[in-house]
Design the sequence.
């Protein structure tokens, strides 16, 4: 059983990993642990002798733009550089990056101890220097050509997405129309069945219905011998009654033959 008296909880979010730094240790090594503390968990450590840092491992964007209302900073933040033939160019840049959870302890040990500091100290620096190196080697004409190629690639992606959307919409419309036709057929069949039942009920409510019931009774009991043992005079009367003859008397059998 672990003794937790005096320990302080340290938690990680659903997309965060934790890094523990042991500042003082009676046993074992001190310093940044190589262990990765998993997302969505809580751990207990003694205060003062331990440091705790978390890093978000989901995909993050660093946006540097000319527009002051957008991007990572509320000021003009686009890249300014010269082409190889001496022309000034400005460029909006969006960098997407993600932290490797297994390397989080190295970030704490050598680079930064928070997401914000990592973003400003490392990601931002590289994101501004590397594009300058790449685009600074181009002439103005080559830059304009690269821009048009990029636009063409974007337009191609948009066209492909639009085509996929239209195809999916057509398939969905066809499926919907098919289901509508099936539903209409079921509705029509149901209405016809209901009308038939209603007309049959109306017919059965008249004299024809009574005759039909007598016919069905006659058909059901035809050829069967039925014996009644009536109870009278305080006991069972063993006198038998010939039901077939009784039915003949009532005219049901005659009705059956007539039908």
Sequence:
């Amino acid at each position: 059983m672990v003794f937790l008296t005096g320990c302080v909880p340290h938690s990680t979010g659903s997309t965060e990993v934790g890094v523990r730094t042991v500042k003082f240790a009676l046993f074992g090594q001190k310093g940044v642990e190589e262990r990765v503390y998993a997302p969505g968990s809580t751990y207990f450590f003694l205060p003062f002798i331990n440091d705790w840092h978390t890093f978000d491992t989901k995909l993050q964007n660093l946006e540097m733009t000319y527009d002051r209302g957008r991007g990572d900073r509320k000021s003009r933040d686009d890249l300014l550089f010269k082409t190889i033939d001496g022309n000034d160019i400005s460029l909006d840049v969006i960098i997407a990056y993600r932290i490797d959870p297994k390397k989080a302890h190295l970030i704490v040990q050598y680079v930064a101890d928070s997401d914000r500091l990592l973003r400003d100290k490392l990601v931002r620096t590289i994101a501004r220097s590397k594009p300058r190196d790449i685009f600074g080697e181009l002439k103005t004409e080559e830059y304009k050509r690269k821009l048009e190629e990029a636009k063409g690639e974007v337009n191609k992606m948009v066209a492909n997405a639009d085509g996929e959307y239209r195809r999916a919409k057509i398939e969905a419309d066809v499926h919907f129309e098919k289901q509508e036709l099936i539903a209409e057929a079921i509705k029509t069949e149901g209405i016809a069945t209901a009308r038939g039942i209603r007309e049959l009920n109306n017919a059965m409510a008249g004299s024809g219905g009574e005759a039909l019931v007598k016919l069905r009774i006659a058909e059901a009991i035809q050829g069967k011998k039925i014996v009644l043992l009536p109870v009278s005079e305080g006991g069972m009367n063993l006198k038998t009654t010939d039901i077939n003859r009784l039915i003949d008397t009532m005219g049901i059998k005659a009705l059956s033959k007539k039908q």
Notes: The chain has six helices and eleven strands. Residues 140-204 form the longest helix (65 residues). Residues 60-139 form one domain. The mean pLDDT is 81.
